[in-house]
Amino acid sequence: MASSMTKISSITVGSGGTSSFDFTSIPQTYTDLIVKISTRSTYAGGSANTIQLSLNGSTASFSGKSIEGEASTVTSGSAARSIGATPSATATSSTFSNGELYFPNYTSNNYKPFSYDVVISFS
Questions:
Q1: What is the reported pTM?
Q2: Rounded mean pLDDT of 42-62?
Q3: For residue 1, what are the CA distances in angstroms to 4, 62, 63, 82, 112?
Q4: Structural domain includes residue 90
Q5: CA-CA 20 to 30 A from 26: which of 6, 42, 93, 107?
């Protein structure tokens, strides 16, 4: 089966940063939705900051599970709106986290499940 993707929107944030951004008017003519991210924080407190998700304007806690790995250590737990981490301003310069959120069958009226993968380097 052939697979294809169409870029429907792009947001580039300048060096001044932003605390949030919105994708609006997403067409209902596709089956699945994939959001690609590349982030870095301007906050200098700590080595990383969390990436928070809200859907359709809702900032209520979301229920999910996380699996994280660092070197040979793997941890798991519950996730509430947090979909990963992003290097802070104190991390090595030009270091970004990169990730992908996947929403299968996003145009249906059913429950909206999603999965995400985020990779981050603190060094």
A1: 0.74
A2: 74
A3: 10, 33, 33, 34, 24
A4: yes
A5: 42
Rounded to whole angstroms, the Cα distance separating 79 from 86 reads 16
Number of domains in the chain: 1
C-alpha dist (Å) from residue 118 to 27, 97, 99: 25, 7, 4
Evaluate whether residue 71 is within a structural domain.
yes
State pLDDT tens for residues 64-109. 667 776 667 777 777 667 777 788 888 888 888 888 888 888 887 7
Specify whether the CB–CB gap between 68 and 76 falls below 8 A.
yes
pLDDT at 76: 75
Token readout for 107 is 């145009």
Instruction: State the amino acid at position 36 in one-letter form.
Output: K
In a domain, 108, yes or no: yes
Q: Are 16 and 88 in contact (CB under 8 A)?
A: no
- Provide the residue range defining the domain that includes 80: 40-54+62-119
State both tokens at 76: 């798991």
Residue 87 lies in a domain: yes
